[in-house]
Design a protein that fits this description.
Number of helices: 17
CATH superfamily of the largest domain: Cytochrome-c3 Hydrogenase, chain B
Structural class: alpha+beta
CATH class of the largest domain: Mainly Alpha
Number of domains: 2
Strand content: 15-25%
Radius of gyration: 23 Å
Largest sheet: 5 strands, mixed
Number of strands: 18
Distance between the termini: 32 Å
């Protein structure tokens, strides 16, 4: 990334003065971002903020250099209603630009498929407390419709070409999402995924924080990733407050994060087995997922880890008896998961369904900037715990688990490798758990007689926090105002990067393979529909 030297640089879970972020005219910003990506950088975040003065919208780019372990930042101001889209030259930003368009009424000229990413009408309100969206903002979006679920879809025309629509209402307990297939018989030409049915306005609700509600928003951004998002938030807050947390708390956070990974990877193996009708592994892993969730409950009383991670450390300590209990639980669970997983790999009928199904190529992985197991299944060594380590992962590394084929089998096998390595990590950390406190309390926000709120966070600073959640890279960007309150808080769940990867994996597949491919990515509707 030799051409990114003009960017502001920082390491993960640190902060920088907002004034230190270079502010370029748009053409320079566009050239620099494209050059950095061409040199191997990834776009972790691209988002907008209403300019504090002078009108317009400030666009921020956060680029990740995996090789150097550094983050690069720059911004630009867009004062007109349109700007030159980066998407034709950099597919990684296609979803970010669509989001910017719907939130701020800007039009990225040249974007190949400009449409909103979410349906709720309040998506068209500026993300700044008290400000209203200009009247022209909605009309500037060519595909905006006032009715939830009504939007344009890409269509193929030809003899015997037909559409298949799945969702947004699905069987069972599942969040809403619509899948539109263009098919010839069983053969899939194209899959378009439409989400945003349950947009909750979380990022807007975070403006003006932190407050008592903020941590609860983080723990419910994506309910199965409570630990991952809570750690990302706490790292950002601690960077803005200039605080270090105790060593024991760092270890307990790492253990909780890996238990969350273990529970979800185990559940995914069982769900994959269920999708091909292989009931032995499906039934085993359904129970074993609960065993790992129960281990998390031993730590903090919540199976999903809520209440465990708090700014300044953790909310619960783990006494010696609980350490012994945890070790016994994970060893017993690993033994059973090993048996269940080996049933999969030793079953020719299962392997026949897993192998060469839902292939995502290395080129697609890099062009879209896929993260997590989806990227590692393509042979890409991309893992925040290695490239951007924070907390305990600065001192204790977990080997990166990869596969090469990029298909359902590879995504399943990467999960199995990570299960084994996460158990080894948890075992090692619990057996050498340092002594000492588990939390350093940060000053709480206060109000003076004028009703002005004062924050313990530094004013006019920007913090970036990355965490390797079980789905992949979680990115939180916090920007504070003159009073040290959040004036902008951006969340990028790994699903935001990976949903398009699922769509690409279905091309030239059989439509009957969709449930299996979908589960092999297992992306979050909730984490996307912020």
């Amino acid at each position: 990334m030799n051409r990114t030297t003009a960017f502001a640089k920082l390491r993960n879970a640190t902060s920088i003065a907002v004034g230190s972020v270079p502010d370029w005219e748009f053409d320079r910003f566009r050239r620099a971002v494209l050059a950095a990506v061409a040199d191997g950088a990834r776009v972790s975040a691209l988002f907008g903020e209403v300019a504090s003065s002078g009108g317009g919208v400030d666009l921020y780019a956060v680029l990740a250099d995996d090789a150097a372990g550094m983050l690069s930042l720059a911004k630009t101001r867009v004062k007109d209603d349109d700007f030159h889209s980066l998407t034709p030259a950099c597919s990684q930003v296609h979803m970010f630009e669509r989001e910017i368009a719907e939130q701020f009424g800007l039009r990225p000229e040249g974007h190949p498929w400009l449409k909103p990413v979410r349906f709720a009408r309040h998506a068209f309100r500026l993300l700044r407390s008290g400000d209203e969206q200009p009247q022209h903002a909605v009309s500037s979006m060519p595909h905006v419709q006032p009715v939830v679920g009504v939007t344009d879809f890409y269509r193929f025309e030809g003899d015997e070409v037909h559409e298949v629509a799945v969702g947004p209402v699905h069987a069972g307990v599942i969040e809403p999402g619509h899948f539109r297939f263009q098919c010839h018989g069983e053969h899939v030409f194209n899959l378009e995924i439409s989400l945003g049915y349950q947009h909750r306005g979380v990022e807007r609700a975070l403006v003006g924080g932190p407050n008592q509600r903020t941590i609860h928003y983080m723990e419910t951004l994506a309910g199965d990733t409570s630990i991952g998002h809570a750690i990302a938030y706490c790292q950002a807050v601690e960077a803005l407050a200039g605080r270090q947390i105790p060593a024991r708390a760092e270890v307990l956070r790492g253990v909780a994060l890996e238990l969350e990974r273990l529970a979800n990877h185990t559940g995914d193996l069982g769900a994959l087995a269920s999708d091909v009708g292989y009931l032995p592994t499906a039934s085993y892993c359904g129970r074993l997922r609960g065993d790992f969730l129960n281990a998390t409950a031993v730590m903090c009383g919540s199976r999903f880890g809520r209440g465990m991670v708090r700014p300044g450390g953790v909310g619960f300590d783990v006494v010696d008896l609980r350490v012994s209990d945890l070790l016994n639980r994970i060893e017993a669970a690993l033994k059973d998961v090993t048996s269940a997983a080996n049933l999969l790999w030793d079953s020719p009928s299962v392997m026949a369904r897993f192998e060469d199904t839902g292939h995502a190529s290395l080129d697609v992985c890099n062009e879209l900037g896929l993260v997590g197991p989806a990227a590692r299944a393509c042979g890409v060594e991309r893992d925040v715990r290695h490239q951007f380590p924070a907390g305990i992962f600065q001192f204790a590394q977990i080997p990166i688990s990869t596969a090469e084929s990029g298909d359902v089998f590879a995504r399943a096998f990467v999960r199995w490798l990570e299960i084994q390595r996460s158990v080894a990590f948890v075992r090692e950390q619990l057996e050498s758990l340092p002594t000492g406190p588990v939390r350093e309390l940060l000053p709480v926000p206060t109000r003076d007689a004028t009703r002005e709120t004062h924050s313990p966070l530094a004013a006019n600073r920007l913090a970036v926090s990355l965490v390797e959640g079980w789905r992949g890279e979680i990115c939180h960007v916090a920007i504070t105002d003159d009073a040290g309150r959040f004036r902008r808080y951006k969340v990028v769940d790994p699903s935001f990067h990976n949903w398009t990867g699922l769509a690409m994996a279905l091309r030239d597949q059989q439509i009957s393979d969709f449930p299996l491919c979908n589960k092999s990515f297992n992306l979050s509707y909730c984490g996307f529909d912020l």
